[in-house]
Thiamine diphosphokinase (Parageobacillus toebii NBRC 107807), 215 residues
Amino acid sequence: MFIHIVGGGPSEHLPSLASYDGEHVRWIGVDRGTKTLLEAGIRPIKAFGDFDSMTMEEIILLQKTLDDLDIWPAEKDKTDMEIALDWAVQQEADKIRIFGATGGRLDHLFGNVQLLIKYAGKPIEMIDRQNIVTVHLPGTYTVFYDERYRYVSYIPISNDIKGMTLDGFKYPLTNSHIFRGSTLCISNELIQSSGTFSFSKGILMMIRSSDVGTI
């Protein structure tokens, strides 16, 4: 089972949601992202939020349309996205993808990145038209070449990353020590069909990106 969560980020940053649909996909709406899903012809199984970005008429329509609308108060200790992601992680899905979480307000963007860090090591991706973001714990990981996402960047989340090794990349590394604030691992590229990255200590973010406007 795959759980796909759609937030209320600007629609121009969204990839084609239909291209991520499938028999084993369960869609979740977050606040205005619920309306985005319905406009794309996708019916979410559940929706979360205070829905403060929607009119009362729109909320009433959602209540009539959806079987499971989980409305929260505007004053709470978690964002709507965190509430939805907490629920999704509890379902033990094979993969969770988050859409509509970038663009627009920077506080929401950085808050959503914090959620990836909160669940570091879980199979969670944050996706927009130009990027795929994941957060990793120590280990060895395989990366496959994808023409849509040519550039691969690694950003230390913890104070430092130890034992960083990149194999199959244009700019390889062997057992390197990377500190937070370093741009050493920005904008690398695979030079073969697949490559690996590994590290022994720390928390690492991987961002796969396209050229501007190509996706």
The CA atoms of residues 149 and 210 lie 4 Å apart. Residues 106-118 form the longest helix (13 residues). Helices lie at 33-39, 56-65, 80-90, 106-118.
